[in-house]
Amino acid sequence: MFDFNRNILIAAALVLILILIFSFIYFSDLNLPFVNWLSDIIYNTLTPILNLIHHLVTNIKNFFTTLFSIDEVNQEIEELRQRNNVLERQILFLENINRENKRLRALLSFQEKVDYQMIGAEVIANSPSIWEKTVTINRGSRDGLSERMPVITYQGFLVGRIDNLGSNSAQVRLITDHDFVVGGIIARTDSREIGLLRGSGRDDQANIMDNIAWDANIKRGDVVLTSGLSNNFPAGLKIGEIAEVETDNYGLSQKAAVNLFINNITLEEVLIIKNFEMEAR
Question: pTM surpassing 0.85?
Fold first, then answer.
């Protein structure tokens, strides 16, 4: 049996009486100054405590919510990173396509300006040898190519000539190769001086144009074109620009350093002039 203490019963009775009194006053709308004063004291005392408890409960709830959602946040971050990587690859792919389209449009534009029969090709390999300057293209004898056909860029820059021929590919000897020689002419109306342009064998060195007359009117900045004085190359193909002129053979002739135009671009597509050599024969 429960053993109730007399003091506990008295306290419980007093609390019950107070509750009944306050309930009667609240529901009967009695306006008693003392009761109002006491209510204000209780309200003002309990409100800050209740607000503090609410703030603490909210912070604790937010802390555990954040703690339990860390895995989800990390997973979302990883998914966003993967999407970003995919988008970056797509952007690079589209940029490459855009650059290729620009090159091809320029190539077609050049073809419309000249009368040569030409075929386009892609550069698929560079020579592994440091002694030879060659590239390999994806066209060959099945495409109607022959050895010594001129090779140019879509801007009209001289690249070289077909040197070794396969059925589906061909090797192009570049104008930078030390065995490459082509006749050059100054593209200035008041000059038109001629000489022989020889490959330097190195991409970081200018080609040399020699056998220039000792009194030739030639100067730095002049553009050099193919002279067309041989059956190997048509006239008017752009070669490079004069960088320096000096005397040669003890003053009996001059020679010039020529910066090649192809050294300023990346060879990816080229044009092969097919009908020039056949007509020259």
Answer: no
For residue 8, what are its two tokens? 């506990």
Number of Cβ within 10 Å of residue 270's Cβ equals 24
**Beta bridge partner(s), residue 274:** none
Cβ atoms of 249 and 236 within 8 Å: the answer is: no
**What does CATH list as the number for 118-281?**
2.40.10.350
Q: How many CA atoms lie within 13 A of 270 on its CB side?
A: 31
CA 59, CA 67: separation in Å to the nearest integer?
12
Under the banding of pLDDT at 50, 70 and 90, the label for residue 175 is very high
Write out 123-188 in H/E/C secondary structure: EEEECCCCCCCEEEECCCHHHCCCCCCEEECCCCEEEEEEEEECCCCEEEEECCCCCCEEEEEECC
pLDDT at site 139: 93
pLDDT, one tens digit per residue, over 224-239 is 999 888 778 888 899 9
Cα 44 to Cα 31: distance, rounded to the nearest angstrom: 19
Q: Is the pLDDT of residue 20 over 60?
A: yes
Rounded to 10°, the helix 33-68/70-113 angle is 50
Of 214, 200, 201, the C-alpha closest to 243 is 200
Both structure tokens of 9: 């019963």
Q: What is the mean pLDDT of residues 152-175?
A: 92
pLDDT exceeds 80 at position 203: no
**Encoded tokens for 64:** 């555990």
